[in-house]
Write a structure and sequence with these properties.
The structure is a single chain. Helices cover 51% and strands 9% of the residues. It is of the alpha+beta class. A hairpin with a 5-residue loop joins strand 3 (219-223) and strand 4.
Length: 255
């Protein structure tokens, strides 16, 4: 209840009215605060503690978020691996190129080269017995020399005649398997008929056996692939016209 104001207080000096006017807003603010307190209920926390509490709650919430970020980083291997680690893993997983042993492809390294294996050339064709008077002997010799240059065999010139007994004996030996094998492996055999009237074949005899005189048939002349005469039986004498004698002669001049 409001008390009646005395008349003497109205006569107060103007100085006391100013403090009262200043206190009125404070009183009104207190009344409003009391009303808010009654509406919201009393607070157990002291005044001014609401902001720190909110900050504390915020600080407590931050670790949980950082823990979640840490858990997310641990769960994701891509995010946790650094670029350098990824590069290291990639480098370790990639196979290292093997280095070839030194000296494996060069003779200077001390390693021996594998020996070349080449198939043996097919045996040369061995003519049958007798002498072909119609054959072009010069052409046959030229072909034999070309073949000899290609395969390294020797050329064996057999000058004889179809009526010559010794020539027939030699033909029998040439037809034997062992002698034919030596001839086919080491020689190109050319048989030249000198028992007829062929001046061309007689000229070939004098070319490869130039010593002249009386020839004892058969005349066997061994010629190298370059065309050089290695032996001439007109000079050295014929070997024994047996398998042993002719095979020995052929082996000697094949090398």
């Amino acid at each position: 209840m409001l008390r009646p104001v005395r008349a003497d207080r109205r006569t107060t000096s103007p100085r006391s009215a100013a403090p009262l006017g200043r206190r009125l807003p404070l009183v009104a603010a207190a009344v409003v605060a009391a009303g808010l307190t009654a509406a919201c209920g009393p607070s157990s926390a002291p005044a001014g503690s609401a902001a720190p509490a909110t900050a504390a709650q915020s600080s407590q919430a931050l670790p949980s978020e950082s823990q979640a970020a840490t858990a997310s980083a641990e769960a994701s291997p891509t995010a946790s691996a650094s670029p350098s680690a990824s590069a290291s893993a990639s480098a370790s997983s990639s196979p290292t190129p093997s280095r070839a042993p030194s000296g494996s492809g060069s003779t200077g390294g001390g390693s021996a080269k594998p020996a070349r294996t080449s198939a043996a050339p097919a045996p040369a064709k061995v003519p049958g017995p007798g002498y072909d008077s119609s054959a072009d002997a010069q052409k046959q010799i030229d072909a034999a020399l070309r073949a000899a240059k290609a395969d390294g065999r020797m050329v064996l010139l057999d000058f004889g005649a179809n009526w010559c007994g010794n020539c027939k004996a030699a033909d029998k030996v040439f037809a034997q398997s062992q002698t034919a094998g030596i001839l086919g492996a080491s020689y190109h055999l050319v048989k030249v008929d000198i028992g007829g009237n062929s001046s061309a074949n007689s000229a070939l005899l004098r070319k490869y056996s130039p010593s002249g005189g009386t020839y004892t048939m058969p005349v066997l002349v061994v010629v190298s692939p370059s065309g050089t005469v290695r032996t001439d039986t007109h000079v050295t004498g014929n070997p024994s016209l047996t398998a042993e004698g002719i095979n020995s002669f052929l082996r000697k001049w094949a090398a």
